[in-house]
């Protein structure tokens, strides 16, 4: 009986379909974020780059910080909630989101700059958490949202704030609490959003923003650790 030989190209094509994929994504089950890539073969070459769609998903998730709950607003008693520097006072029955996280910190962290008075009697209320002291409006100091404050790990450290085409260094002296609010300890003000750099007037003036400017009190900025 004659034997029919299969052409070599057809054999190679068939074997190629039996090969396992060259790489596999490994996802973290808790965060759902791409954590690593591994190369199952013994090739000396580097692993391939993740697909563009995967990288896009990781980038979006990295910027996500979801609320951890809400607090119910209470009407401030008389002579409570100092409205200085455009401070908002809690409204009875309104729900305010709270956060235990902040967006990831980089060399160019996007944030919202707000204004606060850290002096005695100012809208900052109690002494600063880092040193238990009040600070003059003429000193470039800031409070950071809870996630960025990072359990006091940035206390007394300096950050560089970029805005309005200028930059200024400011000292971290307090937390802008994103986890609580609408109570006496927070002067009946709402919880701080998760992306706030709450700065003294000195910071605003160093950035060249005048009080007559429509951005005074709330302005998009970038910041980084010094």
**Number of DSSP helices?**
4
Structural class: alpha+beta
Strand content: 25-35%
Low-confidence parts: 17-43, 52-62
- Record field, number of beta strands: 10
3D shape = globular
Distance between the termini: 83 Å
Order of helices and strands: HEEHEEEEHEEEHE
Rg (C-alpha, Å): 26 Å
Largest sheet: 6 strands, mixed, barrel
Average pLDDT value? 80
Describe this structure in words.
- The chain is an alpha+beta fold and 226 residues long.
- The protein has helices at 8-18, 52-62, 146-149, 201-206, and strands at 24-27, 34-38, 69-72, 95-98, 109-115, 141-145, 158-163, 166-176, 196-199, 218-225.
- Strands 5-9-6-8-7-10 form a six-stranded mixed β-barrel. A two-stranded antiparallel sheet has the order 1-2. Strands 3-4 form a two-stranded antiparallel sheet.
- Strand 7 (158-163) and strand 8 (166-176) form a beta hairpin.
- The model is unreliable at 17-43 and 52-62 (pLDDT under 50).
């Amino acid at each position: 009986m004659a034997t029919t030989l299969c052409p070599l190209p057809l054999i190679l094509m068939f074997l190629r379909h039996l090969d396992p994929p060259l790489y596999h994504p490994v996802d973290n089950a808790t965060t759902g974020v791409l954590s690593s890539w591994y190369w199952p073969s013994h090739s000396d070459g580097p692993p391939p780059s993740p697909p563009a769609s995967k990288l896009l998903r990781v980038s979006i998730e990295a910027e996500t910080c979801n609320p951890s709950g809400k607090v119910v607003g209470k009407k401030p008693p008389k002579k409570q909630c100092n409205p200085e520097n455009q401070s908002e006072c809690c409204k009875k029955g309104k729900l305010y989101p709270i956060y235990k996280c902040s967006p990831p910190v980089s060399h160019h962290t996007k944030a919202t700059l707000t204004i606060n008075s850290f002096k005695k009697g100012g809208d900052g209320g109690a002494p600063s958490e880092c040193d238990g002291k009040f600070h003059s409006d003429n000193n470039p100091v800031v409070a950071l949202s809870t996630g960025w404050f990072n359990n006091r790990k940035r206390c007394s450290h300096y950050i560089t704030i970029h805005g309005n085409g200028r930059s200024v260094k400011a000292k971290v002296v307090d937390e802008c609490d994103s986890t609580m609010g609408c109570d006496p300890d927070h002067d009946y003000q709402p919880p701080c959003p998760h992306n706030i750099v709450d700065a003294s007037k000195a910071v605003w003036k160093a950035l060249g923003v005048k009080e007559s400017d429509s951005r005074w009190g709330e302005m998009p900025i970038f910041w980084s650790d010094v």
